[in-house]
Amino acid sequence: MIDALSLLHGLPFLVGVGYLTYLFLWRCFLSQLTKLPGPKLAALTYWYECYYGTLYPPMSRQNQDLSEYADIVQPAQYAFKIKRLHSEYGPVVRIGPNDVSISDLDFIDTIYAPGPGHRRDKNAKHSRSLGISSSIGGSITHELHRNRREALNPFFSPQRIHRLDPDLASKAAQVENIFADARESGQVLNLSDIYFAFCNDVVHKYCFGSDPNLLGNLHLASARRNNVFSVLGSVKIMFHFNWIRKLLQRLPGGGTGAHGMMIFRRRIRAQIDEVLARDPFSDEEPSIFTHLRDSTELPAAEKSAKRLEDEAVLMTMAGTYSPMLSLMVAHYHLLSRSDIMAKLRTELGGARGPVMPRTAAELERLPYLSAIAQEAHRLTFGLTGRNTRVCPDEPILYNDKERGQTYTFPPGTSLSVSTLVIHTDESLFPDPWTFDPDRWVPSTSASDATDMRRRRSMLSFMRGPRVCIGRHLANAEIAVLLAVMARWDMELFKTDQDDVEFKHDYHVMCPKLGSKGVRVEVKDRWNA
Ligand code: HEM
Questions:
Q1: Atom of ligand 1 nearest to the CA of 459
Q2: Cα(227)–Cα(212) distance, rounded to whole angstroms?
Q3: Is any ligand 1 atom within 6 A of the Cβ of residue 91?
Q4: Quick one: which of 140, 216, 279, 508 has the fewest CB in 10 Å?
Q5: CA 167, CA 126: separation in Å to the nearest integer?
Q6: Contacts of 297 (CB under 8 A, 6+ apart)
Q7: How far apart are CA 231 and CA 314, in angstroms?
Q8: Which residues of this UniProt protein bind heme (predicted)?
Q9: Domain contains 23
């Protein structure tokens, strides 16, 4: 009897040990992925990624002097570790028990844009870390994503975005007024807050039909920018310890986890409730969310307040923070490199004429202006976290030409390409950390083939069916604001390269921790 009881008590322990033994054997010896190059520890356990993803000191640049960081624990470094692993192991590296990173430009389409008839899902573990699983970006399966995307597509064609010209012009004029006031008062401006507010106002109006005018309250813009950053700052912890999110959700007043996210979501939910409460037959301004609310194509579940809340959180967060990063990077380099600013001004010619002399589409066609935007996107790295794809129903083969080896990734393997690795590939981008728009000016020195390879390597907006839906809007915003930047002489204030360079991966790039953003003193309106 006693023996039977102690056996019963020991059963959970035995089951646990059995399960761990099975995991160990499967991950290290039995899975088809065991033949792949990579550190054994990464193959065995996600704690490897957790260590580099949440704690490890930074290695953002190959020859960086780490001693300056020796006394600080630095988080969010797995992207940099993956780059090192590729230098050590080659183009294919097993970076997790079920995760493979590939650094081959010619294989990007196989993962992200395989063409009709091939399904690519997302990895559920990765998608949950932002807590917006019922948004388009959180859709795991290929089919669910396609349905949600079809509902949104009409709002994001280039033609539709051109209709926003008046809104962009009026917001750009507001930015210029802020610059003009600062020139008079001598007040130091935080460009990161200004660009955050600009992008927020534009995307918010597109989503909900009303202008929140964050540009009119830069203190609030600063608080909101920090708030979004605190949301992003929790991404790595939520990825590895999803139970924290679940626990917080159960707490009174708990939303999805981080305090910042709770505040952010509450505000967005209020907007959604307001849209749903409005009379659909009133003469309200049509917007993305009135369109989704009134859609006859979408089933009722897709129009629930909770689902629309997730969609709106993604739309406003992605539509604000990512373009702000590219704008910050671009303006910093225009101010620190007078040669680049001079070329832009030459191209714009009469840029100091009346506010907004040209449309976004016309500006985007200027080769040097668009080269600056492209270079800013390159060094902002789009999504810096692992943007994984899973093929649910067929194995994928990879032929490593250098080693003469073919690898098979069974269905369900989580595959990704790192934007850090590709955007800093020295064969495509010599001296990759230098901001050099001339790389994108057609055929300066490179052959057409190299030029095309370089363009194909740009992953800022990703590609395939899940390519950034807001890319035309982002490029229009950036074009309009580059023209504004050219019209003002400014000096950087207590701001250096560390304030705009990729140092930490919080899903998007984060410069040095504690950075206050790009700050400037406005000197004068530029005189040609
Ligand atoms: C420079 C600015 C931007 C960058 C670098 C950027 C980058 C990206 C990337 C890499 C993705 C693909 C994510 C994935 O594979 O899951 C994406 C998706 C998305 N982006 Fe952007 N984005 C930018 C601007 C915008 C803007 C202005 C909006 C909003 C209007 C927006 C809304 C979205 C949405 C809704 C998705 C999900 C699309 C889908 O899953 O089909 N983005 N973005």
A1: 10
A2: 17
A3: no
A4: 279
A5: 35
A6: 150, 151
A7: 12
A8: 468
A9: no
- Residue holding tokens 């492209």? 374
- Return the H-helix or E-strand segment holding 355: none
Domain presence at residue 36 = no
What digits encode the pLDDT tens for the residues 492-502?
Answer: 999 999 999 99
Residue 3 has pLDDT above 90, yes or no: no
Domain at 53, CATH number = 1.10.630.10
Protein residue whose Cα sits closest to atom 3 of ligand 1: 322
Q: In the beta sheet, which residues pair with residue 96?
A: 99
Distance from the alpha carbon of residue 429 to the mean position of ligand 1, in angstroms: 24
Q: Is the CB of 326 under 6 A from ligand 1?
A: yes
| Start-end of H helices in 163-190 | 165-185
Please state, in angstroms and as integers, the Cα–Cα distance from residue 258 to each residue in 64, 240, 509, following that order. Answer: 32, 14, 19
- For 265, the domain range is 46-525
Q: Is residue 470 part of a domain?
A: yes
Q: How many residues does the chain have?
A: 528
> Is residue 468 annotated as involved in ligand binding?
yes
Q: pTM for this one?
A: 0.92
Q: Please indicate whether residue 224, judged by its CB atom, sits closer than 6 Å to ligand 1.
A: no
pLDDT, tens digit, 9 for 90 and up, residues 10-39: 888 888 889 889 888 888 898 999 999 999
Return the residue whose CA atom lies nearest to atom 5 of ligand 1: 382
Q: In this structure, is residue 74 part of a structural domain?
A: yes
Q: Which residues of 9-40 are buried (b: 16+ CB within 10 A; e: fewer)?
A: eeeeeeeeeeeeeeeeeebeeebebeebbbee
Looking at the structure of the chain, the number of domains it has is 1
Q: Which atom of ligand 1 lies closest to the CA of 156?
A: 30
Q: 503 to each of 58, 76, 512, 519, how far by Cα in Å?
A: 7, 8, 6, 19
